[in-house]
Specification:
The complex is a heterodimer. Chain A is mainly α. Chain A has one domain. Chain A has three helices and one strand, in the order αααβ. The longest helix of chain A has 25 residues. Chain A is flat, with a radius of gyration of 20 Å. Chain B folds into three domains: about 240 residues, no CATH class; about 240 residues, no CATH class; about 90 residues, no CATH class. Chain B has a two-stranded antiparallel ribbon. In chain B, α1 runs antiparallel to α2, α3 runs parallel beside α12 and α13 packs parallel to α16. β1 of chain A pairs antiparallel with β3 of chain B.
């Protein structure tokens, strides 16, 4: 049953995309109503700060780490056997 | 100790391990494998605050000291031993179970130890027992990785022992294991700290972990991911809370580990690197040292053991059923192993800190403690590592194993029933703790004034996770795994050992050969002639006088030689068994 449901979802990537976008929109709207008394620093008072942080952080991590791997760290899996 | 009804939990596991072959003979190994950890788990509640104090060779040793801090770790260690043993029920080799249990015993013994000498004994047991969990995989690579693991841990153990000796000198024989304050710390304390940090996999002495864990057996890795690093977190929390070095190193660890988790290909290597990242949170929490931060470190250790073991069980099931663990060779397995998929995804969302999972209520506590302590940079580093966690273990790992752009074409069966039970138990705990955090909070060493479910924490989490997902969605093509691995700091000793061997083989060996040639042509003839003369005198003259004892000795030596197999594994195993027989006798009496 779960397999069928997942296959059903996988065959509809567009629907999944819109559902995901709807979730992101919901998260942004939710931020307007959050209680900000627990904030630790200035970023906590900016609406959407953590959205920005998450997206930029994620992209930066991928670009930096993958880049470093390509230009320097990447080796064959039998590198030490040679 | 004999006068009361309880038993040291470590003794239970040691005796349990020694009796395993017996139960196997009577076809009751599976029952024994469940009974012992279950008893240990129930029994920890009845341990007195102090027990097992002995005087041995002039040392005061304390095998049992129980307080709130010990209790959290004991609780999760014994629970994990139960889950791990159930997960491994299908493994027939008693040796593997025995190694796992001795390893658990080492961890429990360290946690309960009241002085450094006992810490050291059980610390070494952990290293020596766990290396068998790597060796039992029986591949050439595992054997090699096991030796490296053992060497690195032996080095760490020696640093620790050096620190303990110095401390013994400094404090005039007082070896009690108590908190050290940063102001009064001396070289001895820092050596001890480095010994502990090696087991916590703090860079630059972390490379043993991603080197050995992916080479361990399927069940071995499940045990290893839980005990070594978290025992190290415990001893750091016990002895070194509030050391700023730890706070900074911990924050660096979180990013270092997660960076490698983003680029690695082997699923178990990704998870191994990710342990470095997660333990970083705990080390950072210990380093911040406030009540909230220590609570957070303990809570996170508890939660982390369960979801990281769950993830190792999930990818371990895939490895067991397909023989593969590289993301580049997997994909589309959700059709064949749906239950393993669900359990692993639960582990993935728990580690990422989804609301209603254990990560949400534990990780945030450390981040909030960093914020409350006005450590803005640390807080942002930890938050960035949380982004990387969701990216690498929350999405990338399950996506490329169970879904992915390509179907790998394999049609494996679902994991064995006992593996599923193990995964179910861990998955249940991940969600249970998320829904009912007070179960965990009530166990923590200090009173908890933290409420994870406030609207601000929720919105922060929604954003971090949602937009990390968006980042993955944008970059998914770029993240496609390839069959490579990445250099890490183990390069120094792996290549260094190669150079050392070259040096030994080429110049040193050549010199040696030259010298022995000279010796053979000149010295040997002279020596041999002399030896023959002396031997004749000894054999004919002296030995007859002594009733032929030399001849008897030669014969005896021949017989002893047959015991010596020349296999280091067997020697170490024998030595460990012998040591613990002695210890059991000492503790029980």
């Amino acid at each position: 049953m779960i397999v069928k449901f997942l296959t059903y979802l996988r065959e509809r990537p567009n629907m999944m995309k819109w559902l995901f976008m709807a979730y992101l929109a919901f998260a942004l709207v939710f931020d307007f109503f959050a209680d900000r008394h627990h904030g630790h620093f200035w970023g906590d008072n900016i609406i959407g700060f953590w959205a920005f942080f998450g997206l930029i952080g994620c992209l930066a991590l991928i670009v930096f780490c993958k880049g470093l791997s390509h230009v320097w760290l990447e080796r064959g899996t039998d590198h030490y056997d040679k | 100790m004999t006068s009361s009804i309880f038993m040291h939990p470590a003794t239970m596991f040691i005796v349990g391990a020694l009796l395993l072959p017996l139960f196997k003979k009577f076809n009751a190994q599976k029952i024994w494998l469940v009974v012992v950890p279950l008893l240990a788990f129930i029994q920890i509640k009845y341990l007195p605050a102090s027990f097992g104090c002995v005087e041995w060779l002039g040392f005061k040793m304390q095998f049992g000291r129980v307080d709130q801090l010990t209790m959290v770790f004991l609780h999760v260690f014994t629970l994990m031993a139960l889950i791990g043993s159930i997960f491994g029920l299908h493994v027939k080799e008693s040796g593997q179970h025995a190694a796992a249990w001795l390893y658990v015993a080492g961890s429990l013994g360290t946690t309960l130890a009241g002085d450094y000498l006992v810490v050291f004994i059980f610390w070494e047991l952990m290293a020596f027992a766990s290396v068998f969990l790597v060796w039992y995989r029986k591949r050439k690579r595992s054997i090699e990785a096991g030796y490296r693991y053992l060497l690195v841990h032996t080095f760490g153990g020696l640093v620790l022992l050096g620190g303990i000796f110095l401390r013994y000198l400094n404090l005039d024989g007082d070896l009690s294991f108590v908190a050290i304050t940063p102001d009064t710390a001396t070289l001895a304390d820092y050596l001890i700290m480095i010994g502990f940090m090696l087991n916590a996999a703090v860079p630059p002495i972390h490379a043993w972990l991603p080197d050995a864990y992916p080479e361990a057996t399927v069940t071995g890795a499940v045990f290893m991911c839980a005990f070594t690093t978290k025992t190290a977190v415990y001893v750091l929390a016990r002895g070194f809370a509030g050391f700023e070095t730890l706070a900074i190193m911990g924050a660096i660890m979180t990013l270092y580990g997660v960076g490698y988790a983003v680029i690695e290909n082997d699923a178990r290597r990704i998870l191994a690197y990710h342990i470095v990242s997660q333990v970083g949170y705990m080390v950072c929490g210990v380093g911040i040292g406030t009540e909230m931060a220590i609570n957070g470190a303990c809570a996170h250790a508890y939660a982390h053991i369960l979801y990281k073991a769950l993830l190792f069980m999930g990818v371990g099931s895939v490895l067991e059923m397909t023989g593969r663990s590289k993301l580049s060779e997997l994909g589309g397995l959700y059709k064949y192993m749906p239950l393993s998929m669900i359990f692993t995804v639960i582990g993935g969302i728990a580690i990422s800190g989804f609301p209603l999972t254990s990560g949400f209520i534990s990780k945030s506590m450390i981040i909030a403690a960093a914020g409350a302590d006005h450590q803005l940079i640390l807080m942002l580093m930890l938050s960035l590592a949380a982004v990387g966690t969701f990216l690498s273990v929350g999405i990338k790992l399950p996506y490329f194993i169970w879904f992915g752009p390509n179907d790998c074409g394999l049609k494996p069966k679902e994991a064995y029933w006992n593996m599923q039970v193990g995964m179910f138990m861990a998955a249940f705990m991940c969600i249970f703790l998320g829904v009912y955090p007070d179960y965990l909070y009530d166990m923590l060493p200090y009173v908890v004034n933290y409420h994870p479910y406030n609207s601000y924490h929720l919105t922060e989490t929604f954003h971090l996770l949602g937009f990390t997902g968006l980042g993955f969605y944008i970059m998914v093509k770029y993240l496609k795994p390839h069959d490579v691995s990445n250099l890490d700091l183990d390069w120094f000793y792996r290549r260094g050992a190669g150079w050392f061997m070259w040096l030994a083989r080429k110049p040193i060996s050549a010199t040696n050969e030259w010298v022995s040639n000279v010796y053979q042509t000149v010295g040997l003839r002279f020596t041999m002639a002399l030896a023959r003369a002396l031997s004749w005198f000894d054999w004919e003259g002296i030995d007859w006088a002594l009733d032929g004892s030399a001849r008897g000795f030669v014969k005896g030596g021949e017989q002893v030689r047959q015991f010596q197999t020349g296999k280091l594994q067997q020697y170490i195993g024998g030595a460990v068994v012998l040591l613990f027989l002695v210890l059991i006798v000492v503790v029980l009496i």
